[in-house]
From TrEMBL:
It holds the Pfam family LpxD. Its EC number is 2.3.1.191. Residues 22-89 form the UDP-3-O-[3-hydroxymyristoyl] glucosamine N-acyltransferase non-repeat region domain. GO terms for cellular component: membrane. GO terms for molecular function: N-acyltransferase activity; UDP-3-O-[(3R)-3-hydroxyacyl]-glucosamine N-acyltransferase activity. Signal peptide: none annotated. Catalyzes the N-acylation of UDP-3-O-acylglucosamine using 3-hydroxyacyl-ACP as the acyl donor. Is involved in the biosynthesis of lipid A, a phosphorylated glycolipid that anchors the lipopolysaccharide to the outer membrane of the cell. It comes from Christiangramia crocea. This is UDP-3-O-acylglucosamine N-acyltransferase. The active site is at 241 (proton acceptor). It catalyses: a UDP-3-O-[(3R)-3-hydroxyacyl]-alpha-D-glucosamine + a (3R)-hydroxyacyl-[ACP] = a UDP-2-N,3-O-bis[(3R)-3-hydroxyacyl]-alpha-D-glucosamine + holo-[ACP] + H(+).
Length: 342
């Protein structure tokens, strides 16, 4: 799909300097721009590329002063970075604007769906599923019985949503995510064997949640595993049965959260964090990458290490950690000297 400079300027409420009819069909970095591409300049570090770029159109700030001739057509806006972000969102909406039910696919006779549905090939829609308006379901998606999905939801290829799961409005679930698989519930027997504990709860995902690729959210043993509104989950995260994650908490990749732990609102959790089960983590907590959490955490704490301790305490302790070999050498020398003097 091609756009002219004039069309882009209209979308961004900007002004054109150069050829308003020049066309672009792709986006590029300013240093890698080629004919037919559109780029932007907002960081002064990349200013020199404005005069050498081969991009057909470049978005710049209104107050940017040109001191050399440029070959690229300019679109001047109030904030080039925000304008380019707006354009990316607009482009993404067009790219993802599919509709209709592709074949082959399976849609149960008891399933209900709203307007603007896209249902990709080789996907499955189970009994009594209810889907809202403007939902995009890409190929090879499985949606089990009695699942409910709100409006403006995008589910990318290969997602598996088990029965009874509830998904709110304006959510995005990326490829390979699994929602509602059984929690890790087993009861040890007298002779060491394990018996399966039935997992009969569900998963509730509220509005405006993003779930990364290959992230797994287990159904509850009883009740619900709950992901509150505004939560952002990175790729490869494991959330166990009966976990609850509070509003607007963001969690980075490869984090694991054990069963029945409750995490508060507006927390920031780094990558590869391990959180034990049956804990309560307060609001606005910050946990640094690769930390291990084995105790309840109060509001506003910042933690690092395994087992995690206060962030400032960790930094103070680290000075001693890294100097430990030197310190031990000094101690050994002092002990040797004392023994010789004795």
């Amino acid at each position: 799909m091609k756009f002219t400079a004039a069309q882009i300027a209209e979308i961004l409420e900007g002004t054109v300097e150069g050829n308003p009819e020049v066309e672009v069909s792709e986006l590029a970095k300013i240093e890698e721009g080629s004919e037919g591409s559109l780029t932007f300049l907002s960081n002064p570090k990349y200013t020199s590329f404005l005069y050498t770029t081969n991009a057909s159109i470049t978005i710049i700030n209104n107050d940017f002063e040109i001191d050399h001739p440029v070959s690229t057509t300019l679109i001047k806006v109030k904030d080039a970075y925000k304008a380019f972000s707006t354009l990316l969102e607009y482009y993404n909406q067009i790219k993802l604007n599919k509709s209709g039910i592709e074949a082959p696919s399976f849609v149960s006779d008891t399933a209900k769906y709203g307007e603007g549905l896209y249902f990709g090939a080789f996907s499955y829609l189970g009994e009594n599923v209810v889907i809202g308006d403007n939902v995009k379901i890409y190929p090879n998606v499985y949606i089990g019985d009695n699942v409910k999905i709100g409006n403006d939801v995008t589910i990318f290829a290969g997602v598996k949503i088990y029965s009874e799961s509830l998904i709110g409005n304006n959510c995005t679930i990326h490829s390979g995510a699994v929602i509602g698989a059984d929690g890790f519930g087993f009861s040890p027997g007298d002779t060491g064997e394990y018996s399966k504990v039935p997992q009969i709860g569900n998963v509730i995902i509220e509005d405006n949640v993003d779930i990364g690729a290959a992230t797994t959210i287990d159904r509850a043993t009883l009740g619900s595993t709950i992901i509150r509104q505004g939560v952002k989950l990175d790729n490869h995260i494991q959330i166990a049965h009966n976990v609850e994650i509070g509003d607007n908490t963001a969690i980075a990749a490869q984090t694991g959260i054990a069963g029945s732990t409750r995490i508060g609102k507006n927390c920031l959790i780094g990558g590869q964090v391990g959180i034990a089960g049956h804990l309560t983590i307060g609001d606005r907590v910050k946990i640094q990458a690769q930390s291990g959490i084995g105790r309840d955490i109060k509001d506003d704490e910042m933690l690092q290490g395994s087992p995690a301790i206060g962030y400032s305490d960790y930094n103070k302790s680290y000075i001693h950690f890294k100097n430990l070999p030197k310190t031990m050498k000094t101690i050994n020398q002092l002990e040797k000297k004392m023994n010789n003097n004795g």
